[in-house]
Amino acid sequence: MRNVARVISVTCFVFVFANGCLLSQSSATMSSILNPDVVSVTRWTVSGSKDRLLCVVSERRVANGSSLPVRTLTVYRQKELDLSVLYHFETQDSILNAYPLGDRDGRLFLTWVGGSAYHFRVLAWVDGEVEQVLDASSKLPLEILYDGQGRDSLLVTQPEMKDGKWTPTDGTTDVYKWNGKAYDELGTVPWAKRFQCVSKKTCASAK
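RE: above sequence
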């Protein structure tokens, strides 16, 4: 029986609260982080941790007069109402979406927007720690392809300018496949052949 692949094109959704800032402290309480500074809150459930992880994005204006605010992503381990910091990241990009790739043990997928491009970052729970396992950018939304075993591949397309518009038709696609602890870069293929790239061997033959 043939495996049927499922393709998801990443769209725009985010849990929005308000604008402001979040302190990068080593511990916190639920009441201290759910303040007007928070723009996004996402729950992330992983095995090997008795407690849920809470992913909070906040925003603050900088005092030096820069027009761009600083956005902060902080991943907390939540134990009842107490929180401890596991991961911290700052950027001037705007958050577009944040969600786990699965109900349990899925990676945390985040899309940021800045400089007229999408910036994709993926966090994973590896050996009891939060690690960034992918950092990629594109003018187009990323695609997610699932194989018959439920493992995902991330397809990042670099489009070409045609008739004044960015189009994938003549572009190329970088393909990354999850191996259980990291994303293997399978290769870069023409956009039209991106679904043929399911291993390094098939990627090489699709060029």
